[in-house]
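Good day; I would like, with your permission, to put a structural problem before you. What I wish to show you is a protein chain and, alongside it, a tokenised description of its three-dimensional fold. Please examine both parts with care and let me know of anything in them that strikes you as inconsistent. Thank you for your consideration; the sequence and its tokens are set out here:

***
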Amino acid sequence: MNTFARRRRNGFTLIEVLAALLILSALALMSYRGLGAVLDTRQHVAAETDKWRQVAAFFARFEQDVQMAAPRPVRRAAGSAPAWIGVPTSTTTQPRLAFSRFASDENMDTPRRVAYTLNGKQQIELWLWPGLDLPADVPPARYTVLRGVTTFDLQYLDADRVWVNAWPTSPRDAAIPRAVRVRIVLASGEQVVRVFALNS
């Protein structure tokens, strides 16, 4: 009898084993949920980082292009077009902003006509023509430079330091404005406004 009692004291009862399993299961469940939250947060941070990297790349490209804006009209058989054209709304054939651009400092590019617009797929497009004085029916190459944009507004600073929504507004306007203000609203709701001074 003493031997049986000694053996019973050295082992675990069924209730003790079940309690231990219950505690271990609770710890495993909490660890799994914690790991899931960490992975979800990591995925969210990666998506946000990628989104803002693309926004920064778009503004860097836009700034590079407008800094090389040239006050040179486009010559065509039907007449000439202003060096800088900004319209409040765009169509599939008319971009929101079009301007003449000098060649880059590294001579890796040629003077050409450049345009930006917002298409119906919430994408900002960059239009590039192969040169400046081209027939009106020469189509541009189109590149998507930013996705997930619901609003793409542009304003131009005139000689009186007044922001206007179109350019040129009158024949006395300079070839290019003093500055351009860009406002984009992302599909996720954030609004970004940047102002770029021009070499006018």
User: Anything to note?
Assistant: The two ends are 106 Å apart (CA to CA). The chain has a mean pLDDT of 86. Helices lie at 2-10, 14-67. Residues 14-67 form the longest helix (54 residues).
